[in-house]
Amino acid sequence: MGKKVCVLGAGGGIGQPLSLLMKLSPQVTELSCYDIVGTAGVAADLSHIPSNSSVTGHLPSAGTWPPTHDTGLEAALKDAAVVVIPAGVPRKPGMTRDDLFNTNAGIVKTLVEACGDFCPDAVLAIISNPVNSTVPIAAEVLKKKGVYNPKKVLGVTTLDVCRANTFVGNAMGKNPDDVDVTVIGGHAGITILPLFSQVEGFSPSDEELEALTVRTQFGGDEVVKAKAGAGSATLSMAYAGYVFAENVLKAMDGDDSIVQCAYVESTLTDSPYFASPCKFGKDGVEEVLGFGEITAYEQGWLDKMLPDLKKQIQKGVDFANN
């Protein structure tokens, strides 16, 4: 049975191709597009695609941002089963994800407050960077409203998995679609840890392993540099966001085989949020799964990342509460 999906930030570099892919999804019967400009055009354009979903476009009702009570946002969110949030500013050369913090943190806080008001039972799939901080911001906002459900506040780390699958598939001479690398930790730099030791039949040299690990961690920088200041990873991120949301929808519809990595509230480590494989069900994350045996090399990266990850989480918590 199809569901309503809302994309917040549907006019942007990630939002437009993400909305296109969601329009093609057989799981979606209503696609709701929201942004601060241009959404009517995006919705009109998408509405000509022959698929089984209606499309609506929404703008802030008062024409200002942030809204006090935004009826445009309310209409966009009402009855949504899944809300995908790519809203925010993209990275430019030389910028870290952290440089984006204040702008994107404020945007996410405002949008999640609206989600708490207008679709408190929706699954939130958060793409807006820095995900390591924006997911804790979302959780704190929803806690204040009394509607926080850890099963439903999810950071999308699927692009890290896509990159790891692509890089290791190419290295093995295999179709990357036949590879499924577990990627744990967070979603920025060294907090991203691909567990290449768990890929069957893959025996890289130490140098190759290091190069693949670092390339997965900093794949976003590769794209920013290649685009020479004209943008960041938009198309691959849109694809990853679509894959993630589609899997969430399939699980909601009763498919009990859905396991995918997500950045969620977790007790697997001493970090309060952590990305790992999760089993999905009708209400979002059914179970946060362990990540199995890891090598001494991977343990080294894990030990190195955790202090950084915890700092980024605390930064989000502090922002939401101040």
Automatic annotation (TrEMBL):
Enzyme class: oxidoreductase
Start and end residues of each Lactate/malate dehydrogenase N-terminal domain: 4-155
Assigned keywords, A-Z: NAD, Oxidoreductase, Tricarboxylic acid cycle
Active site: H187
GO cellular component, one term: cytoplasm
InterPro entries on file: L-lactate/malate_DH, Lactate/malate_DH_C, Lactate/malate_DH_N, Lactate_DH/Glyco_Ohase_4_C, Malate_DH_AS, Malate_DH_type1, NAD(P)-bd_dom_sf
Keyword NAD in record: yes
Record-listed substrate binding positions: R91, R97, N129, R163
Amino-acid positions noted as binding NAD(+) in the UniProt annotation, renumbered to this chain: G9, A10, G11, G12, G13, I14, G15, D35, N104, I127, S128, N129, M237
PROSITE patterns: MDH
Pfam families: Ldh_1_C, Ldh_1_N
GO molecular function term, any single one: L-malate dehydrogenase (NAD+) activity
Reactions catalysed according to its record: (S)-malate + NAD(+) = oxaloacetate + NADH + H(+)
Domain Lactate/malate dehydrogenase C-terminal per the UniProt entry, residue ranges: 157-319
EC numbers for this chain: 1.1.1.37
Subunit structure, interactors included: Homodimer.
Family as reported in the entry's similarity comment: Belongs to the LDH/MDH superfamily. MDH type 1 family.
NCBIfam families: MDH_euk_gproteo
Protein name: Malate dehydrogenase
